[in-house]
Write a structure and sequence with these properties.
Strand content: 35-45%
Helix content: 10-25%
Radius of gyration: 34 Å
Distance between the termini: 123 Å
Number of strands: 8
Order of helices and strands: HEEEEEEEE
Shape: elongated
Length: 167
Amino acid sequence: MVQSRRKKSSLNNTIAMKNRGYLILLSICLLTGCESDDNEVEEPQAEPTVFQGRVLYSDTNEPVSSAVIRIIAFESVLFAGDISIETLDGILDESTQGDFNLMFKANSDIDNFSIGVDFFDPENPGLLIGGSGIANGMVCNPIDCDAFLPGNEYNDLTILVPRPETN
């Protein structure tokens, strides 16, 4: 009888040790499962895009003083191409001497930018008479006028535009 109690006691100790082992293993799994997520790689936040430079006439390198510089933000949409989603305009007048400084706020929907220049009508200063784009001989340096990517600072841009035709 004593021997049978010892066997039962020994069996109970073995079961208790196994249960403790399972509890320890379960505790370790729970603790490692609750580990901080600080090691996860986060997606970079969208940064603002800055355009700073000068617009000059291509024939004389004189500053443009009666125009609007227009920067257009595009989103690339599958099967639709680039769609304009935002536009910033900067007035070029005598006081700016062709200089501009425009900034788009961070926007993860923007895929690229394009620049154009529209001239004011000399006879009706509030009216724009058309523009100068790549098709009309406009040149951007040091990067193409339609190759701007979001999240960058484009400093010291030089935009050369032909003079508008007068009637």
